[in-house]
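Entry type: protein chain
Record version: 2
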Amino acid sequence: MTEIINWNELWKAMRSGHQHRGDRGEDMGSRWDKRAKKFNESVMKHTERTQRQIATLELKPEYTVLDVGAGTGRLSIPIAKQVKSVTAVDPSKGMLACLQENVEREGITNVTTINKRWEDIEVGVDIEPHDIVIACHSLSMFDIQEALRKMDAASKGYVYIMNFAGRWMGNGDGKLWKAISGGGRRSGHSTDYILLYNILHDMKIYANVDILDTEFEQHYDSLDDAVEQWKEMRDIPPEKEDVLREHLSEILVKNSETGALSFKRESKSATIWW
């Protein structure tokens, strides 16, 4: 029977909506270069979440691990302490610079970085197959089926993909994006795990899925600090700053002792593995 839905084409359509929002004449690597330091400060604090995710991986001292979209090394660095070596691939020079600083701070010597888009990596030329391939919330590739095929080809053992399960937004975020977009839908992170699972199924890769409850918490020195970070990380145009400021003033919680503000989101995360 001919498939009613072409899941890869659906992914492309959804990613197209995301890409045009951030199209400012920059490639993905350059955009993340500007965010790298703030991103690093935020994610490297999420040690509990990181340890929960690593606990689900089949790691052995003799294994080599390939981290696709490694960012600043939130997973690469603790994994490197348990395995033979880690190869961290990321299109952003800024992210990998932060990763290298984190590696040196930890005294780790078994992490190699490659500054390339995954789409431009050639297995057997740029990298050799690794025992394990991981990709955690880093699947922004337009042709996701080809990206997954390459991850499968790059693995001698397991592949682990971590992505959102269901809606990632909360705390009235839907209302914010509706106001910013003039009533339209925001497509960015609506590409949740079920599309990936269905694409893999069409590729005759019958993967396993584990769903976990996750909690994200971010702290800000002030409302101005929160506004600037949200504008940068979420591609919010300057002319919509007043809408964003009003939204944040409603959802951020103030610490009565320090005056600092915090934002907390509970969501579900899926680990797809085979």
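Comment: The chain has ten helices and eight strands.
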